[in-house]
Amino acid sequence: MESIVRTKNLKKYYGNGEALVKALDGVDLEIERGKFTAITGTSGSGKSTLLHMLGGLDVPTEGSVWIGEQELSRLNSEQAAIFRRKQIGFIFQNYNLIPVLTVWENIVFPITLDGQKPDRKFIMEIVQFLGLDDKLERLPNNLSGGQQQRVAIARALASKPSLILADEPTGNLDSKTSDDVVGLLKVTSNEFHQTIVMITHNPEIAASADRVIRIEDGRLV
User: How many whole angstroms separate alpha carbon 81 and alpha carbon 112?
Assistant: First the structure.
């Protein structure tokens, strides 16, 4: 099976001397295309740091990250921003929706930022799939937490990225809504051929993934 993500000897250190923190300490990882992978670990284990590295949101102290054929460290900051918008969809715990934009405007915002024309037919398919078709003209603050997270999922999928990175996407949701959101992520992963890497504290959510990766003290366990 083809790998979409590869890391080699990935390290991220903060501080020095006595205050040195090894957030990531030599991580070698391969993630298969089209799979749903969960990353678990205690607080401070390096989960979020790893996700930020995979998404090119942070620069490693040492080692490399490959997304497909692209090594992220070879991109300058502008190239990295464009690569992220086209190739990676992000879903965060706090939704990160823009309050003055409607649901539709939020979903297509990253695409229009690139000067591209949204694929309306494809996006409407996602919108209907996520049960948002009657919410497109609403502002985010008129939606429940679960609905806002669905908008964030739609936005992440809309640009047809090859990789979706989700950082505790159910952290602010009740257990029923959490189950719904994870179920939707799994089904959208299959439906739209996405690779999903999700950080979660929830063992039940992790158990529903195709693969579970555990990280402790910056190393894979």
Answer: 14
Sorted by where each begins, the domain ranges of the chain are 35-58+74-220
Question: Which residues sit opposite 39 in a β-bridge?
Answer: 199, 213
Conformational region of residue 202, where left means phi above 0, alpha means psi within -120 to 50, and beta covers everything else: beta
Q: Tell me the CATH class for 35-58+74-220.
A: alpha beta
Please count the other Cβ atoms lying within 10 Å of the Cβ belonging to residue 164.
23
Q: Are 86 and 78 in contact (CB under 8 A)?
A: no
The pTM of the full predicted model, rounded to 2 decimals, is 0.90
Ramachandran quadrant class, 41 (left: phi over 0; alpha: psi -120 to 50; beta: rest):
left
- Encode pLDDT of 43-83 as tens digits: 889 999 999 999 999 999 999 999 999 999 999 999 998 89
Q: Where are the alpha helices (DSSP H) in 38-174?
A: 47-54, 77-87, 103-113, 120-129, 145-158
